[in-house]
Design goal:
- This protein has helices at 3-26, 50-62, and strands spanning 32-35, 44-48, 66-70, 73-77, 80-81, 86-90, 94-98, 106-107, 127-133, 136-142, 145-147, 164-177, 180-182, 189-200, 203-205, 211-222, 225-228, 233-244, 247-250, 255-257, 261-272, 292-296, 306-321, 323-329, 333-348, 353-357, 363-375, 403-420, 429-440, 453-456, 461-463, 466-468.
- Helices cover 8% and strands 49% of the residues.
- By secondary structure, the chain is mainly beta.
- The chain contains 2 helices and 32 strands.
- It starts with a helix and ends in a 7-residue tail after the last strand.
- 46% of the residues are buried.
- The chain has a 10-stranded parallel barrel.
- The chain has a domain at 209-468.
Length: 475
């Protein structure tokens, strides 16, 4: 055999061997499938299936992973404990429903001290219907439903809140998609310290918060609808999180960041009030007004040191809320770059937008671009400075009807149009200790004579690129 033919033979032999081994490697057995009915579960809405469901999950995990099927029916259960490499598939008309017996719920017990999160170490507060702790590669999917049944706990938070519906902690590579969460006894989704997680195509009805994450990296929340009695999406200590293409309807706040974030995008979302379901803590008042659409307030509930940076909010539609945007820094917080663009808000019925700090922190650079906000206007509202103090948890009346900025190094308004439908005698803008103010294509009632603005201890004000001379305090 000639040298050339030998080389060709060796090449063909090697390629054939590689193909053979590739076929062997690809010829893996399909993932194991476990139906909870095979373990004694009955979807009659009466039988308690806690042991049957958990036995199926354990069997799936011990087999190296696979899919646990919940077929059509209503399966009453206490805590379902997820394991690594397990997919929980909720088929059409399948319902996992929480039992009323509070002792049937297992608490999340942190593996380490997590003092920076309120309630993390309060075991009773962190009980859950579906629980995953220290797991990886877990999926919950399908067209079914998880129902928290508004399980009442007279010893719970506010003397009424029961278990969370789905809680994952200290876990990574998680996926939640397709299903509906109804009647959460506390939060629909609660999480501590999670990484690489996707919430997709979900629907949340009633309960308290929809998705609440305390500590998360690489988080995506998309294509989901929230109709909640409390905040739709909340939390903080996030790194690189995206909230996109979601419908937000709440009787509290839409998106509420209560801890620092670094790398947050909120895009292509609609915020519509009033809430479909009342604020559950309001009792007989059945309050349904939607508070702030987007609220960034690290430290709003308790001390949460750290910075807010790389925030991009764009392509947002807001209708019939008390307040469109509120950004507040608290003790130990600073903010880097925040960009808001292509935002349209109508029927803002109570409070001005604000970017404010009261306890030492500063905003570095905040830009609003291509923004249109229509306020209702309040002819009897006061322009007194008495309200200029550390705000409570929620938005409040301000001495201006349009925008307040306080303790900001640079703030820019580009192609911004604000107006009201009634009348309002307060100034449109109120700036307090702002280093540089830039207006470019800004429209507001009184803008033709540059009236209706208050400056206190501010640096230069640029109007369409030109420095406007003014006294330190001007209205």
């Amino acid at each position: 055999m000639g040298a050339m033919k030998k080389k060709q033979f060796v090449r063909v032999f090697c390629l054939s061997a590689l193909c053979f081994w590739a076929c062997l490697a690809g010829a893996q057995e399909p993932p194991a499938v476990f139906n909870i009915k095979d373990y004694g579960a009955q979807g009659d809405g009466k039988t308690i299936n806690t042991q049957a469901i958990n036995t199926a999950i354990i069997a799936c995990s011990e087999a190296g992973g696979g899919t646990v099927i919940v077929s059509a029916g209503t399966f009453l259960t206490g805590t379902v404990q997820m394991k690594s490499h397990v997919t929980l598939l909720l088929e059409k008309d399948a319902v996992i429903k929480g039992v009323t017996d509070l002792e049937a719920y297992v608490p999340y017990v942190p593996s380490r001290e997590m003092g920076r999160y309120d309630n993390a170490n309060k075991f009773k507060w962190n009980r859950a219907l579906i629980l995953g702790v220290g797991v990886t590669d877990v999926t919950i999917t399908g067209n079914g439903c998880v129902d928290g049944d508004h399980v009442f706990d007279p010893q719970g938070e506010e003397r009424m809140r029961g278990p969370h519906t789905i809680l994952f902690a200290e876990s990574r590579n998680l996926s939640f998609s397709g299903f509906t969460v109804n009647n959460s006894a506390n939060y629909a989704f609660m999480a501590y310290e999670i990484e690489n997680v996707v919430y997709n195509n979900l629907t949340v009805n009633q309960g308290w918060d929809g998705i609440h994450i305390r500590g998360g990296k690489h988080i995506i929340i998309r294509n989901s609808s929230f109709y909640t009695g409390d905040d739709c999406i909340a939390g903080g200590y996030w790194e690189d999180a995206v909230i996109t293409d979601c419908h937000i309807n709440s009787s509290c706040n839409g998106i509420r960041i209560i801890m620092p974030v670094d790398g947050l995008t909120i895009s292509h979302c609609t915020f519509v009030g009033p809430g479909k379901y009342p604020h559950r803590t309001s009792g007989e008042r059945n309050r349904t007004n939607m508070l702030s659409a987007i609220l960034l307030q690290p430290g709003g509930w308790s001390n949460a040191p750290g910075n807010v940076d790389r925030v991009h909010i764009h392509d947002i539609s807001i209708n019939n809320v008390n307040n469109p945007l509120m950004m507040v820094l608290n003790e130990g917080n600073n903010a880097g770059k925040i960009l808001v663009e292509r935002l349209k808000a109508e029927q803002v019925n109570q409070y001005a937008s604000s970017v404010e700090s009261w306890k030492g922190g500063m905003f570095d650079e905040v830009t609003f671009r291509d923004v249109s906000i229509e306020y209702v206007g309040h002819p009897d509202a006061s322009s007194s400075d008495e309200s200029l103090k550390q705000p409570p948890v929620d938005a409040r009346n301000l001495p201006c009807w349009g925008w307040l900025a306080r303790n900001v190094k640079t703030i820019a308004f580009e192609n911004v149009d604000i107006r009201y439908t009634d009348t309002d005698s307060r100034p449109a803008f109120y700036f307090d200790n702002v280093g540089t103010i830039k207006f470019n294509g800004v429209k507001y009632p009184g803008s033709e004579n540059m009236d209706s603005i208050v400056f206190k201890n501010c640096g230069p004000w640029y109007m369409d690129g030109q420095v406007i001379n003014r006294t330190p305090n001007r209205r």
